């Protein structure tokens, strides 16, 4: 075996071939020419990747290895680990972004020339982009990384350097879900928009994967600090490729509270998603730190320490937007700091997001918008509180994210311009600061918002009752007929992976893509994992394309496609209807597009929903379940029989949708009556 050759585990071979691990074990036992292990352990051996690919192709089990899978396998099997692989691959991609012709100049070079010339060019480019103290450390030798770098360059020629790095970085984050706390794209874009358009200098002192700075429209410089050195390096490369070359990027590693890398830096905006509930933030060491201008935070108030750290770095009048846990708005240990923030006019708005908007998903996190007070100005006397959970959705469903974001931005823009906005019961209110300066200094939005009156009063509730009665009658009419008894089936079966290889269906993974420049609404809609689960229309939005990165084409769904979410462990498969056709496919959702001359979509979706089918195709971790769509089984039946089953599954889906509507209307009626009876708009009769 060549020195430093890439290695792959049995699980990796299974992913390459689209089979289960049991199939790989069978190949090892039945085929004498199957590649021998070259490393690992007795229980988890590893194999040379090139030899495995060659064997699979010779056996006809892998007609062609997708280039993106080959690239990820090379990164995943790098001898120094995936972060090291992404550092060298990202450095090459940054070179290619600056000089697209560089891949051509290296394509004719030998491996030895490639490894000898590249390090110096990489170091020069890194220092020019990040300054001399950048966190991207390269190995002394690139000999073992040449296959990875060549595959990276080949993939980037068609996909683009920035998109290639996003693919690799995204795969790395997905493979380590418990290691990182990520800020989702939607909240990140909302935070950047709340901070204002086109700030000059922006800082994120707890940058993580760089989502907040990537969403920012900074025109001068981006500054970031991350306590994890490996993540700091990878985030630096991500920001460099996602940002206009004219914007300076500076990323440092270290603990921002204990070892601030930007002590003298003053910026226009700070965006921050700090660590929550961290009792080891430096309380015992930083008691006399000058950053505590609004009061020394208690040991349990790490978020208020990060908040004051952020305020210390903005100019007078500069903006800070923080993602905060809801407890920070009401804990007694933080009331003195909150009181001083209010008295001096630093805290301008508290926005409660819907539960699930960002991790931890069970909590309705808050956004705090702050302005550093002008020492010569008069402090404002009002605070804006906004509860996004009060924005009406469809029936009992909560409002889609784009509606939440637009509502928050509209109200904030009016409040920021005029100092006050009309109150909306249950949604937003402008509060005099003096009303909040009591013993609790509680700024939780829901506690200061009167509940919305039952919309339309008793007449509207009567209308809901009539619609519910009609829906319940339709539910009874569409209820499935009594099932006919039968023996357990003994069909010959195939898998989704085998159907895809045979051309009977097209399988695509969602999650990529950027919006088109034409601003078309259809091009921006995303069918999210949540939409598939609840049977709703698309509610997501594609991120905007970067001026220097072009447009990454998303996977668009068509009527008759079958979409399957892969996380959560539920048996869900949905046939796309005309209302969702044309939307982009969201993250953690797979698209199956059957050839209707061989495979009925309703038949396919129905059998994919079987509980036993989902159980055997799922992998179970301590905190999550992931579905391997390729392993889902489908009976081999003639098309006429498929359509017979498909029609039955279609009527079940219609019955399920009617039940869902009845549930929503019932919830709406019950809650409306409770609200109406308690606020007096409905009488007990």
From TrEMBL:
Pfam families: N6_Mtase (PF02384). The keyword DNA-binding applies. This is N-6 DNA Methylase. It comes from Actinacidiphila cocklensis. Keywords: DNA-binding, Methyltransferase, Restriction system, Transferase. It comes from the Bacteria. PANTHER family: TYPE I RESTRICTION ENZYME HINDI METHYLASE SUBUNIT (PTHR42998:SF1), TYPE I RESTRICTION ENZYME HINDVIIP M PROTEIN-RELATED (PTHR42998). The keyword Protease does not apply.
């Amino acid at each position: 075996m060549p020195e430093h050759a890439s290695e792959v585990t049995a699980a990796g071979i299974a992913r390459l071939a689209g089979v289960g691990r049991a199939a790989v074990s069978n190949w090892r036992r039945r085929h004498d020419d199957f590649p021998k292990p070259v490393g690992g352990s007795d229980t988890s051996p590893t194999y040379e990747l090139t030899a495995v690919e060659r064997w699979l192709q010779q056996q006809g089990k892998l007609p062609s290895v997708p280039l993106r899978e080959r690239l990820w396998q090379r990164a995943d099997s790098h001898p120094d680990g995936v972060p090291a692989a992404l550092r060298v691959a990202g450095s090459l991609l940054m070179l290619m972004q600056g000089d697209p012709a560089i891949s051509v100049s290296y394509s004719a070079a030998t491996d030895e020339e490639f490894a000898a010339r590249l390090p110096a060019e990489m170091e020069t480019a890194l220092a020019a982009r990040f300054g001399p103290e950048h966190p991207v450390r390269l190995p002394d030798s690139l000999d073992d990384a040449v296959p990875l770098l060549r595959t990276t360059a080949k993939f980037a020629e068609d996909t683009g350097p920035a998109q290639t790095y996003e693919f690799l970085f995204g795969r790395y984050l997905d493979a380590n879900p418990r290691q990182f706390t990520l800020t989702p794209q939607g909240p990140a874009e909302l935070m950047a928009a709340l901070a204002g358009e086109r700030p000059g200098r922006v800082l994120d002192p707890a940058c993580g994967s760089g989502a907040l700075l990537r969403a920012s429209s900074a025109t001068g410089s981006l500054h970031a600090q991350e306590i994890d050195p490996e993540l700091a390096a990878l985030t630096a490369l991500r920001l460099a490729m996602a940002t206009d070359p004219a914007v300076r990027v500076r990323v440092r590693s270290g603990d921002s509270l204990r070892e601030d890398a930007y002590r003298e830096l003053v910026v226009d905006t700070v965006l921050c998603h700090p660590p929550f509930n961290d009792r080891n933030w430096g309380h015992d060491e930083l008691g006399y730190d000058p950053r505590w201008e609004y009061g020394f935070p208690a040991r349990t108030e790490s978020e208020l320490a990060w908040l004051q750290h952020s305020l210390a770095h903005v100019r007078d009048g500069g903006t800070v937007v923080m993602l905060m846990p809801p407890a920070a708005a009401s804990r007694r240990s933080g009331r003195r700091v909150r009181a001083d923030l209010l008295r001096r006019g630093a805290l301008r708005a508290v926005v409660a997001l819907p539960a699930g908007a960002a991790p931890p998903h069970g909590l309705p996190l808050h956004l705090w918008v702050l302005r550093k007070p002008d020492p010569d100005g008069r402090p404002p006397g009002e605070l804006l509180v906004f509860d996004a959970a009060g924005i009406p959705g469809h029936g009992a469903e909560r409002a889609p994210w784009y509606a939440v974001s637009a509502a928050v931005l509209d109200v904030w823009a009016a409040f920021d311009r005029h100092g006050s906005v009309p109150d909306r019961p249950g949604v937003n209110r402008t509060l005099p600061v003096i009303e909040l300066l009591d013993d609790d200094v509680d700024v939780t939005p829901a506690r200061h918002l009167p509940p919305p009156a039952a919309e339309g009063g008793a007449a509207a509730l009567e209308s809901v009752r009539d619609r519910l009665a009609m829906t319940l009658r339709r539910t009874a009419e569409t209820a499935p007929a009594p099932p006919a008894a039968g023996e357990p089936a003994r069909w010959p079966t195939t898998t989704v992976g085998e159907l895809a290889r045979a051309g009977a269906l097209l399988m695509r993974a969602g999650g990529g893509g950027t919006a088109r420049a034409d601003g078309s609404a259809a091009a921006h809609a995303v069918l999210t994992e949540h939409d598939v689960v609840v049977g709703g229309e698309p509610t997501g939005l594609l991120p905007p394309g970067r001026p220097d990165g072009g447009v990454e084409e998303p996977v668009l769904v068509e009527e008759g496609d079958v979409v399957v979410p892969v996380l959560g462990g539920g048996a869900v498969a949905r046939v796309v209807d005309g209302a969702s056709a044309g939307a982009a496919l969201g993250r953690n959702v797979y698209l199956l597009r059957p050839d209707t001359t061989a495979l009925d979509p309703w038949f396919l979706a129905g059998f994919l929903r079987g509980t036993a089918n989902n159980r055997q195709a799922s992998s179970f971790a301590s905190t999550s379940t992931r579905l391997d769509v390729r392993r889902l089984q489908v009976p081999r039946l003639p098309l006429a029989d498929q359509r017979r089953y498909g029609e039955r599954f279609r009527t079940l889906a219609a019955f399920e949708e009617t039940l869902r509507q009845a549930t929503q209307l019932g919830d709406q009626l019950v809650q409306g009556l409770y609200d109406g009876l308690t606020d007096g708009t409905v009488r007990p009769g």
